[in-house]
């Protein structure tokens, strides 16, 4: 009886938390095409102001890769009203912090300020959009910054080229085949005019969403948004070309030698559908079943029981056009790719053949309920989720409804989706290994 009461109490607490997590927001579109999303949270005198632009690495010229990421840096150089080098000083002097990040699909900028500096944040982002200063000094400066970032995070980082190498092998036509950080040779060769043209094409109000979340008054915030963003002219709509990859019908076998590692990593990767699809969410659950923690199937088998691997993990890398499902393992000394692959494939076949138990299914549902609660637990995450759902997912209401999709996924769907996408003839087998002695010499 005590156990039942404990379980009931936990269930009520969890359902209450999920209910309390419902996100209220208002959205509208300015005449210039800028979509605006407002969320009020009076729990603390803080406000997040963010702009997400629908431009990422996939929008670049194949001969000029790295532009979107370069702009993540370049647009902090200054504006007609904010002198070069003053952006970060202005933010910190007013009690705030800010950052930006770039993916294959979008670029995202945000500031977090005390709520009495809301107008400052709105003005700064509008000025960045309206009149950024893009000159040779800024380009040269950020060129060196990006090169140093590449050296630090990619070239000299253990396993730093892992995702890049997976993408390069998995995509032959689609621009996902290169990394957001791009080619330093391409950036060196680019002219100032090319950078200015890229800004004019993509950094326009009708290619962006503005999200303001926190301790705000709706009426005042709308007036400020109209005052600062309203006068910015609409840009030429961005034309997007859909590029379709041919199906993978035979296994892709590849190797990459990394001078920064001593232990090999074996990667098994499958191409998966867009993050807009239901199947992408089912694959999230498949990832959890196989390697979601120490109780997952592959961890228990490869790490705990057979002690064949030091580490194993899997994740569904979902993006706007395609995704990738990756299984990564670092073998214990003496074990080969073939030995580990045999165990991995056996677990996949079992998942494709048999339904997971009711107990495991309930555990999975609890895990995703908890993930849902945590995903919007702070204003910064919530603002980014609102922007992503609107701009990339095409449905801003996923902020509240996505958990219902996960709840509705059945055991039968998990089996069928695993069978559909995790096929041995439609995958990449990448050996990510240390530099071989003969190659080093």
Structure in words:
The chain is α+β, with helices and mostly antiparallel strands and 441 residues long. The protein folds into two domains: 23-229, Cytochrome Bc1 Complex, Chain A, domain 1 (2-Layer Sandwich); 252-434, Cytochrome Bc1 Complex, Chain A, domain 1 (2-Layer Sandwich). The chain is 46% helix and 18% strand. The chain has helices spanning 2-20, 67-74, 87-93, 118-130, 136-155, 162-170, 184-189, 192-202, 218-229, 278-291, 297-305, 337-353, 358-375, 379-391, 398-408, 411-421, 437-440; strands at residues 26-29, 35-40, 46-53, 97-102, 107-114, 208-214, 252-258, 265-272, 309-318, 323-331, 427-434. The strands form two sheets. Strands 1-2-6-3-5-4 form a six-stranded mixed β-sheet, with helices on both faces. A hairpin with a 4-residue loop joins strand 4 and strand 5. Helix 10 (278-291) packs across helix 16. It starts with a helix and ends with a helix. 38% of the residues are buried. One of its GO terms (biological process) is proteolysis. Residues 36-175 form the Peptidase M16 N-terminal domain.
Strand order of the largest sheet: 1-2-6-3-5-4
Helix content: 40-55%
Which ranges are low-confidence, i.e. pLDDT below 50, for 5 or more consecutive residues?
A: 1-20
Task: Assign the CATH topology of the largest domain.
Answer: Cytochrome Bc1 Complex, Chain A, domain 1
Question: What is the helix tally?
Answer: 17
């Amino acid at each position: 009886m005590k156990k039942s009461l404990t379980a009931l109490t936990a269930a009520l607490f969890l359902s209450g938390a999920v209910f309390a997590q419902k996100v209220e927001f208002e959205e509208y579109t300015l005449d210039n095409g800028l979509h605006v999303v407002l969320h009020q949270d009076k729990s603390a005198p803080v406000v997040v102001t963010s702009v997400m632009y629908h431009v990422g690495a996939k929008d670049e010229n194949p001969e000029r890769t790295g532009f979107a990421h370069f702009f993540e840096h370049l647009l902090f150089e200054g504006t007609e009203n904010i002198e070069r080098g003053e952006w970060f000083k202005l933010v910190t002097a007013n009690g705030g912090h800010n950052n930006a990040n770039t993916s294959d699909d979008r670029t995202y900028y945000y500031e977090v300020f005390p709520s009495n500096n809301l107008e400052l944040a709105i003005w700064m982002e509008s000025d960045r959009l309206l009149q950024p200063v893009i000159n040779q000094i800024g380009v040269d400066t950020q060129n060196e910054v990006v090169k140093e970032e590449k050296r630090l995070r990619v070239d000299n980082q253990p396993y730093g080229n892992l995702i890049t190498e997976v993408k390069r092998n998995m995509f032959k036509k689609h621009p996902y085949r290169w990394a957001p950080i791009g080619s330093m040779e391409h950036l060196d060769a680019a002219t100032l005019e090319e950078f200015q043209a890229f800004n004019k094409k993509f950094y326009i109000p009708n290619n962006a969403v503005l999200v303001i979340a926190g301790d705000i008054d709706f009426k005042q915030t709308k007036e400020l948004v109209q005052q600062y963003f309203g006068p910015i002219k609409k840009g030429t709509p961005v034309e997007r070309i859909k590029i379709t990859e041919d199906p993978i019908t035979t296994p892709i076998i590849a190797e990459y030698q990394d001078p920064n590692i001593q232990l090999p990593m074996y990667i098994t990767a499958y191409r998966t559908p867009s993050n807009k699809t239901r199947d992408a969410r089912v694959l999230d659950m498949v990832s959890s079943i196989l390697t979601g923690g120490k109780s997952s199937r592959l961890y228990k088998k490869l790490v705990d029981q057979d002690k064949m691997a030091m580490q194993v993990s899997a994740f569904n890398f979902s993006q706007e056009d395609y995704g990738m499902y990756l299984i990564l393992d670092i073998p214990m000394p003496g074990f080969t790719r073939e030995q580990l692959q045999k165990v991995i494939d056996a677990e996949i076949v079992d998942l494709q053949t048999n339904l997971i138990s009711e107990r495991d299914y309930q555990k999975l549902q609890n895990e995703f309920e908890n993930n849902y609660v945590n995903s919007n637990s702070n204003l910064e995450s919530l603002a980014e989720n609102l922007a992503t759902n609107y701009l990339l997912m095409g449905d801003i209401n996923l902020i509240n409804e996505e958990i219902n999709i996960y709840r509705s996924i059945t055991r039968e769907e998990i089996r069928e989706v695993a069978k559909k996408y995790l096929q041995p003839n439609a995958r990449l087998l990448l050996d990510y290994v240390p530099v071989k002695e003969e190659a080093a010499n």
